[in-house]
């Protein structure tokens, strides 16, 4: 059935930010987004000082014997599917560009990587869902600087630079709370343009000649046509709010000399966040910088978006015994060893997609990384829905349309397809099973709520996946499909672990 004019008006009324984002996206697609730099770049000319409100923080760096957890807080509601999809499209374009561009930065990162020291304990932190802000990402509370000040950062396994909006913020998006002020922190330290660590980041264009040891290292990091951050590459103390697994008592952990971006020019659909905390595979990511303390493993467990808003998700650094002892824990290997892989991404090798327990007829080359770096599949916490290269998505969509007979299809519903009218249905939905079969034999089976999304108040459910053109495009397993699974990234043994969990109980 065709959507009525009233429904279209209702969608415009309920999701005005989507239409604004779509218009903004169209404008940026007309040409490459550019940033104008002043003749004399003065990245550190901040004069503002903010009062400290975190005097209770303390360092527990030397006492990490007991397991510790970081929590991911929940907020109610799903937010606009349209906003989530607009944000995802920016990320898709950026991921494709990273796959296509192989720069000297990637080689420099490998040269500067250090061998980690033995880990000391386990760290767990709280994550908060961003759905109340119209965001599909998860947020982590981090205290930055000395004295420490609170900032909410997006958790992102699809990128590796940690960055925060910094004063003076010359071109920035709206965030909750004040910008970070480097002049208000005694632990802030610029990385010199002559420091070898400066080679880990891409310089903004036009590049400035490095003339002295005192000259700051400038960076440019992009996520899409209108999503990017530019500023000073620097060192700072990050303090994370922890909860011990014994007794649930809260304490704080300081991590000194964290490499991060102090962003003075920032654009994008970041929905109230102060910046990003990167968890990618590169040496700049927060997880890589914590390897000397917690080793090569981290994991998270994301509560579903329909859970009680007081329930939090968890981010765990270090080896977690709970997931290692889970009877349904599965592993699949990360794809490594190919020169055309982007070192930031966590690639997995798909063999087949299963709908209703049956493998779909998808060309084998759909899942391969091509010689130019395009294609392949990554696991990404910063992308909301899952995106599959067009041949795979077409086969998935057609399989569901063929097998779903119990509910009338809603034709031409905006963005998502297929969609079904389930108004008045009280019993569990009768929908085919969905799973991913990996090359090494591991199977990831998903519950219905991880691959169909309910849109209120229309009483419509839609397949929570989209196509990614062209046929050789990168495929992404997003965080919507990862809800209520404990996901473990083990870079030492180069494998991804996943186990079904009620994440509210972790």
From TrEMBL:
UniProt-annotated catalytic positions: 156, 380
Superkingdom classification of source: Eukaryota
Gene3D superfamilies: Acid Proteases (2.40.70.10)
Statement: the UniProt record of this protein carries the keyword Hydrolase: yes
Signal peptide residues on this chain, from the entry's feature table: 1-21
GO BP annotations listed: proteolysis
Keywords, ordered alphabetically: Aspartyl protease, Hydrolase, Protease, Signal
PANTHER family named in the record: ASPARTYL PROTEASE FAMILY PROTEIN 2-LIKE, OS07G0603500 PROTEIN-RELATED
Family classification: Belongs to the peptidase A1 family.
Protein name: Peptidase A1 domain-containing protein
């Amino acid at each position: 059935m065709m959507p009525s004019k009233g429904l279209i008006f209702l969608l415009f009324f309920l999701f005005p930010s989507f239409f604004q984002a779509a218009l903004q996206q169209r404008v940026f697609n007309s040409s490459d987004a550019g940033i104008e730099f002043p003749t004399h770049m003065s990245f550190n000319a901040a004069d503002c000082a903010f009062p400290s409100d975190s005097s209770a923080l303390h360092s527990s760096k030397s006492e990490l014997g007991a397991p510790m957890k970081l929590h991911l807080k929940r907020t109610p509601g799903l937010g606009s599917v349209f906003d989530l999809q607009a944000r995802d499209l920016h990320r898709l374009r950026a991921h494709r560009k990273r796959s296509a561009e192989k720069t000297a930065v990637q080689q420099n990162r490998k040269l500067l990587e250090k061998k980690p020291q033995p880990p000391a304990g386990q760290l767990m932190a709280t994550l908060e869902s961003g759905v109340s802000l119209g965001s599909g990402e998860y947020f982590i509370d981090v205290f930055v600087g000395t004295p420490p000040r609170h900032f909410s950062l997006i958790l992102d396994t699809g990128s590796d630079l940690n960055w925060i909006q910094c004063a003076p913020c010359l071109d920035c998006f709206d965030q909750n709370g004040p910008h970070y002020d480097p002049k208000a922190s005694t632990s802030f330290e610029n990385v010199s343009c002559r420091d070898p660590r400066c080679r880990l980041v891409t310089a903004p264009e036009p590049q400035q000649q490095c003339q002295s040891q005192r000259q700051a290292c400038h960076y440019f990091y992009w996520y899409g046509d209108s999503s990017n951050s530019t500023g000073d590459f620097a060192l700072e103390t990050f303090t994370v709010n922890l909860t011990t697994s014994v007794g649930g008592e809260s304490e704080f952990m300081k991590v000194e000399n964290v490499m991060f971006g102090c962003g003075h020019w920032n654009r994008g659909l970041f929905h109230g966040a102060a910046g990003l905390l990167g968890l990618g595979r590169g040496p700049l990511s927060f997880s890589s910088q914590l390897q000397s303390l917690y080793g090569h493993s981290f994991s998270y467990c994301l509560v579903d978006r329909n859970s009680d808003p007081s329930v939090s998700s968890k981010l765990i650094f270090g080896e977690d015994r709970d997931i290692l002892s889970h009877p349904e824990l599965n592993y699949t290997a990360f794809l490594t060893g190919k020169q055309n892989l982007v070192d930031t991404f966590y690639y997995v090798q798909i063999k087949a997609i299963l709908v209703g327990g049956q493998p779909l007829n998808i060309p084998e080359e759909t899942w391969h990384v091509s010689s130019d770096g395009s294609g392949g599949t990554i696991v990404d916490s910063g992308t909301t829905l899952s995106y599959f290269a067009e041949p795979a998505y077409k086969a998935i969509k057609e399989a569901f349309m063929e097998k779903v007979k119990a509910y009338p299809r809603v034709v031409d519903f905006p963005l998502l397809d297929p969609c079904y009218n389930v108004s008045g249905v009280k019993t569990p939905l009768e929908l085919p099973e969905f799973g991913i079969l990996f090359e090494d034999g591991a199977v990831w089976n998903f519950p219905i709520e991880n691959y169909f999304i309910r849109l209120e108040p229309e009483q419509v459910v839609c397949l929570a996946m989209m196509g990614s053109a062209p046929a050789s495009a990168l495929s992404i397993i997003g965080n919507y499909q990862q809800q209520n699974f404990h996901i473990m990234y083990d870079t030492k043994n180069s494998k991804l672990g996943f186990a079904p969990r009620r994440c509210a109980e972790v």
